[in-house]
Amino acid sequence: MTVPIITLSDGVQIPQLGFGTFKIPQEDAERAVSEALRIGYRHIDTAAIYGNEVGVGAAIAASGLRRNEIFLTTKLWNDMHHYATARVAVETSLEKLGLDHIDLYLIHWPATLKYGDSYLEAWDALQEFKAEGLTRSIGVSNFNVAHLDAISGEIPSVNQVEIHPSLTQNELRAELANRSIVCEAWSPLGRGSDLSEPTIVRIAAELGRTPAQITIRWHLQLGNIVIPKSLTPARIAENLDVFNFELTTEQLDAITALDRDARTGSNPALADF
Q1: What pTM did the predictor assign?
Q2: What is the number of domains present in the chain?
C-alpha cells in the first residue's frame, strides 16, 4: 500500500490521504493517532481548537518513526490572528506537539464576522513563520475566493474546506486549481450522512467495498487531499484500504451528481465564531 504524494506549489510534498482528529478528545488522541501511524498513515491533521495536540504529539513521539516520515498539520484559531498572538499560538502548538516544526500551518477560518480583516495580519505572520522554519508550508482553511483575493504575498499551498458528495464545491475546486492551490477536504464523508446515499451504496455493492471506501476513493480520484477520522481501529484501517481499486468515470460522475449544496458545518461567509 502506497499513499500518493502531492507536491504543493512551494515544493513541499504531502500524503494525499491523512488521518483527521476533529472531535477526538485529548484522552483518546494518543491511542487513535498511534493506531493510525502503526498501520501506515503518515499524514496527521489536528488544530489548536481541537484540544488534542498533546495527545497527537505523544503518539508521534512514541511511534518510533523519524520526524521526516510524518506530515503534521495544525491550525491557527480565530482569536489569535494578530501578529503577536499568532506567534504565541504557533509556539504553543509546537510545545504541545513536542515538535520543532510543523509541516503545514493553516489559518483555520477567516472569521470576518467576528474579527474583521484580522486574517490578513495572520497571513503575513504565517509567511514569517515559514521563513523562520517554524513551518515548512502555509495555507488556509475555509477561505472563499474573496478571502483568497484579499491576502497578499505567498500563495497558500492548501485550502482545507468542507467537501463531500452532497457538497462537492465544484466551482471553488476549479478556482483553486487555477491558482495552484491544492484542495483538502474536511468532513469528507459528510459526517456519515452521505454513506447511506443509494448511489454510493450501490457502487459499494458493485465493487465489494464499503460506502466510506467508495467516498474516500472519489475524493482521491478528484485530486483532493482527504482526512477521514475514526476512533475504531477497524474503520481506521478500512479508510486506508482504498488503493487497490478505482472508480470508473461513470461512477465518479454519479457520485459528483449527488451535490445539493448541503453543508454539515458553517458557511465561511456566515461563521460568527
Answers
A1: 0.97
A2: 1
